[in-house]
Amino acid sequence: MRLEPGAGGQDRQRAGRVILVGGGPGDPGLLTVAGLDAIRNADVIAADRLAPLSALAHARPEAEIIDVGKIPRGPGVAQRTIEELLVDRALKGNTVVRFKGGDSFIFGRGGEEWQACAAAGIPVTIIPGVTSASAAPAAAGIPLTHRQLSQGFTVVTGHVPPSDRRSTVNWEALAQSGLTLVIMMGMANLAVITDALIGYGLDPATPAAVVADGTMSSMRTERGTLTDIAARAAEAGLGAPATVVIGSVAGFTPA
Fold first, then answer.
1. Could you say which of 103, 185, 187, 213 is catalytic?
2. Is there a catalytic annotation at residue 92?
3. Do residue 161 and residue 80 come from a single domain?
4. 177 with 83, same domain?
5. Among residues 48, 103, 184, 213, which one is catalytic?
6. Which residue, 130, 155, 179, sits at the end of a domain?
7. What is the CATH number of the domain that holds 214?
8. For residues 198 and 177, what is the distance between their CA atoms, to the nearest angstrom?
9. What's the CATH code of the domain at 99?
10. For position 4, what pLDDT does the model report?
């Protein structure tokens, strides 16, 4: 239910809801029109550090903006706390935007937040975002598919190393897949990941690349092979956020 200004004597009355906005890979120009419109009309915005925060300049002056960012292996707001915040503000009748980088449903915990809101009876709208899994390589001139080079790609998280019992990624199957591999959140474990892929039979000479700060003015790219990409990236000082591409397309040149 939505009452327009003046209806029933209320200037601003509406049912509370949550909008999950994927902010894209970092460049504010890659935030969708729908995402920007949600920010402009929000009562509350819960924003991650990797979202294009300059877009918050478009928020209404009276909007409550809450920093819920997390630093990898560092301090941050617990996921459960974020979910409770979304529910709390929405139950008070607010339109709440959950603003994060990339796409909320690709390693963004958007599914968990949707479940938490649904359990509380709160309607949720999902506005997809441009994922850095594809945008960062594209900005660096790396096509994830190419008719002569790769017939598909797989996106996985490298947050948990292959040897960790918590890992559910079948790295052996990936090494044998013949597909382009895109690894998110894998910089800390890049050396052990490449070693594992080589151990499972992927050619050590396979081209590889690391794209840091993809689509941003600070974007940097380091290319090499499966054997040396971890060392090259470390020597170049590349760190998170970064996207790793492994496969023949990582050596792509248009000429």
1. 185
2. no
3. no
4. no
5. 48
6. 130
7. 3.30.950.10
8. 13
9. 3.40.1010.10
10. 31
Q: Which of 70, 88, 219, 228 is catalytic?
A: 70
Mean pLDDT, consecutive 10-residue stretches, the chain (255 aa), reads: 32 74 96 98 96 97 92 75 96 97 95 96 97 97 94 96 93 97 96 98 98 96 98 96 97 83
Q: Would you call 1 a catalytic residue per the annotation? A: no
At 66-87, the pLDDT tens digits run 999 876 655 678 999 999 999 9
Taking the CA atoms of the chain, what radius of gyration do you get in angstroms? 21
Report how far residue 239's alpha carbon sits from residue 236's, in angstroms, rounded to the nearest whole number.
9
pTM (whole model) above 0.85: yes
Longest alpha-carbon distance in the chain: 71
Domain of residue 231 covers 133-251
Neighbour tally for 238: CB within 10 Å: 19
Residues 98 and 140 in one domain: no
Same domain? For 39 and 89 the reply is yes
185 is catalytic: yes
Q: Is the peptide bond before 72 cis (omega within 30 degrees of 0)?
A: no
pLDDT value for 72:
61
- Into how many domains does the chain fold? 2
